[in-house]
Design goal:
This protein is of the alpha/beta class and about 350 residues long. It has eight helices and 20 strands. It has an eight-stranded mixed β-sheet with strand order 4-1-5-7-10-11-14-15, with helices on both faces. A four-stranded parallel β-sheet has the order 17-18-19-20, sandwiched between helices. Helix 3 runs parallel beside helix 7. It is globular.
């Protein structure tokens, strides 16, 4: 029996081709993908294509588009064995992270991929990314899907979606998962590292939770910044501070006072690291103690993309009664190393 994969094309470089008259890139009709890539007809799975009515640059992908994707997967969940989402590379890690929190009780593969060069380019990375992603999206052992999470496949590596970040705009090997090992790697053989795969411990049927709040602010700390500017920031539900190393911040006079003012206004403060690898450890250095004193939340080894989308999902979400900090500090779908 051939597995059925639903390919959702949202936009991005992978769906572009060059207009040889103007030299510029334009989106081609993704409904004709089988003509562009006849190799897809040789796949051991059946591929069905659903393109966005208007392909979007990844910089235009946000909460409303995340909801559209989640709803479409929910609508078709029982009709298909796996899902492949083609997406622009710049914000793919945000979408992958958001979907990982929104898709509850997921027992089927949701694979995301894109490319650095258009699919019509002679040197494109699009074809390999697309074809191998289809293999992963249709990979089953008996009646059970091998992959049961949101993952990104790019340049021969399968990565947990909410652990990824885009670290290169230049190289084909554009994504990294610095704090979690790869899920699989393609070469002569299609390899899966089963002990790294996520399995939902909750016994629940698949459903979606669309709750996304925009009441989040992300701020990168830098040497010499005027911390008094925080007093001019309008009140928000969550402030995410990207700080130095394992959780340090300058000990200038008034730092704790200003942060405490923000907390007293009802704002949750989350701390993540500017380092690509590693995480937050309050108390390791004296200049991190201020965060423990004001009741800030450690982002541990989460990526900034995952911390942002997780906070957006949890804020005022009626499905998560109780303290925001308790839920944020808990690994919901493999986004934190326990």
């Amino acid at each position: 029996m051939k597995r059925k994969v639903l390919l959702i094309y949202t936009g991005g470089t992978i769906g572009m081709e060059k207009d040889y008259e103007t030299g510029s890139l334009r989106a081609f009709d993704f409904g004709n993908i089988f003509e562009k890539m006849p190799e897809m007809k040789l796949m051991e799975c059946k591929v069905f294509v659903h393109p966005f009515a208007k392909p979007l640059d990844s910089s235009d992908m946000g909460p409303e588009e995340w909801k559209i994707i989640a709803r479409y997967i929910h609508k078709n969940y029982h009709e298909y064995d796996g899902f492949l989402i083609l997406h622009g590379t710049d914000t793919m890690s945000y979408t992958a992270s958001a979907l990982s929190f929104m898709l509850k009780g997921l027992k089927k593969p949701v694979i995301m991929t894109g490319s650095q060069l258009p699919i019509g380019d002679l040197r494109t990375d699009a074809k390999e990314n697309l074809l191998t992603s289809l293999y992963y999206a249709s990979l089953y052992e008996g009646d059970e899907a091998v992959i049961q999470e949101v993952a990104i496949y790019f340049e021969y590596k399968l990565l947990r979606g909410n652990r990824t970040l885009k670290y290169s705009a230049e190289y084909f090997d554009a994504y990294a998962s610095p704090n979690y090992p790869i899920l699989g790697q393609s070469g002569v053989h299609l390899n899966i590292i089963k002990e790294n795969l996520f399995r939902c411990k909750m016994q629940e049927d698949f459903h979606i939770d669309e709750h996304i709040s925009g009441d989040v602010l992300f701020w990168r700390i830098f040497p010499g910044m005027n911390f008094n500017h925080f007093r001019d920031i309008p009140k928000m539900k969550v402030l995410i501070l990207q700080v130095f190393g394992s959780g340090t911040i300058f000990s200038s006079e008034g730092t704790q006072e200003i942060l405490q003012e923000i907390r007293n206004n009802g704002t949750e403060i989350i701390v993540v690291s500017q380092c690509i690898s590693g995480g937050i450890s309050f108390g390791k250095y004296e200049n991190s103690n201020v965060f423990a004193k004001i009741g800030a939340i450690s982002g541990k080894d989460m990526t900034a993309e995952s911390a942002i989308t997780k906070a957006m999902h949890l804020i005022d979400n009626p499905r998560y009664p109780g303290k925001f900090s308790d839920y944020f500090s808990k690994s919901l779908c493999g986004e934190i190393t326990n």
